[in-house]
Specification:
Blueprint: E1 11-18, E2 25-32, E3 36-40, E4 42-43, E5 46-47, E6 53-56, E7 61-63, E8 75-79, E9 85-89, H1 93-110, H2 136-144, E10 153-157, E11 160-167, H3 168-177, H4 184-196, E12 200-203, H5 205-213, E13 227-230, H6 248-251, E14 254-260, E15 262-265, E16 274-279, E17 285-289, E18 300-303, E19 308-311, E20 329-333, E21 339-343, H7 347-358
Antiparallel strand pairs: 1-2, 1-9, 2-3, 3-6, 4-5, 7-8, 8-9, 10-11, 11-13, 12-13, 14-16, 15-21, 16-17, 17-18, 19-20, 20-21
Helix pairs in contact: 3-4
């Protein structure tokens, strides 16, 4: 379906979708229209001309965040008027929330003027929640619950490794998902109160500095790089620490850019990976992830130190590229002379990636 004035494209891009029959996860290209969300297979550098599925938005309900999947904190759920459920995963919390907000806005415009607004939908603010009254002790007990509470993981920030902790955005996600807060703003206020009472403690430079220098309402950060843990008097049992085979230095640092790209190295072409560009203290790395699995353990990566990156000609298939992959391609040559051919979803994204990579090489 092509874009026209009556049915313009509102948003498009990669999301990872869970299969209906076989519950595997595959990257698909999604296109949002005012009344429907279409998705396509993206292969050989091109979107399929025939759509793989259609989600009608009239009467659709959105759950964002949706935290039922361990190791997949970036999922949101769509439930159609006919009760069909779709589970979609973005590459970042910002992307997830933006997709949910844009879809939610489209759903609201389709709602009849005299139709009541749902009061039980779990969303991030564009649909209403029924807010319940909980004491702070109840909130903390729920957060601390071994089975349904906040999951403890390991994090690497600015060259240091921290275990048995969680990010500020993970806390906010959890509070909204469990309907302990109506919006992310309310969740931050509630988290700040929990922090102020000493149930949580900041971990790492970002969260420690925020507690030291900000006012009460701004001490807790809704940020994936601001880390927290339960106070020492809490001994949460049954938690599984996140493990990785990569060094703490390699995985540490601020994430500078992330998104979906297609990678071809030498003569192999894996499925569409999720790339992360990170900046440790000494050098940069580009890590990539299998979208059919979790986004915690990368399946590969390489150092950007001393690499060369350039855009490839969009006319035809460039030399060195296998198959008919063409358009929006960039090439990275590492200091060990490994050649990576990478395809971005748009020309602008290609230039953004090239600029980010050159800044680390």
């Amino acid at each position: 379906m092509e874009e026209d004035q009556k049915n313009p494209i509102l948003k498009e891009g990669f999301l990872v979708k869970r299969g209906h029959v076989v519950h595997n996860w595959k990257a698909r290209w999604f296109v949002l229209y005012p009344d429907q969300l279409l998705y396509y297979k993206y292969d050989g550098g091109k979107r399929d001309s025939c759509q793989r599925g259609r989600i009608m938005l009239t009467g659709c309900k959105i759950s964002c965040p949706y935290l039922e999947y361990d190791n997949r904190p970036l999922v949101f759920k769509l439930q159609t008027k006919s009760s069909a459920e779709y589970f979609l995963e973005a590459c970042s919390r910002e992307e997830r929330d933006q997709w949910a907000a844009d879809i939610g806005a489209a759903v609201e415009k389709l709602r009849p003027a005299d139709s009541p607004t749902p009061s039980q939908s779990k969303t991030t603010g564009y649909l209403s929640l029924q807010l319940h009254s909980f004491s702070l002790n109840q909130v903390v007990d729920s957060m601390y619950d071994v089975h349904s509470g906040i999951k403890l993981t390991s994090h690497n920030e600015q060259g240091s490794s921290y275990s048995n902790c969680f990010s500020g955005s993970a806390v906010v996600d959890w509070l909204v998902f469990n309907q302990l807060a109506l919006t992310r703003v309310e969740a931050v206020t509630l988290s700040s109160a929990v922090l102020e009472e000493g149930y949580l403690r900041p971990v790492g430079l970002r969260s420690v500095e925020a507690q030291r220098s900000h006012g009460l309402s701004e001490q807790f950060l809704d940020d994936s790089t601001a880390l927290y843990s339960f106070s020492e008097n809490f001994k949460k049992r049954g938690s599984v620490k996140a493990e990785t085979s990569l060094s703490a230095m390699e995985l540490s640092g601020k994430v500078l850019k992330r998104g979906y790209l297609l990678k071809q190295v030498r003569k192999t072409l894996p499925i569409s990976p999720n790339y992360l560009l990170k900046q440790p203290k000494l050098s940069g790395y580009l890590h990539y992830y299998d979208p059919s699995k979790d986004d915690i353990s990368p399946v590969g990566g390489f150092s950007l130190r001393g690499c060369l990156v350039s855009a490839l000609d969009d006319n035809g298939v460039p030399s060195g590229v296998k198959g008919k992959v063409q358009g929006n391609l960039l090439k990275i040559i590492t200091q060990f002379d490994t050649h990576y051919y990478i395809q971005a979803p748009s020309r602008q994204e290609r230039m953004d990636w090239i600029e980010a990579i050159r800044g680390q090489s």
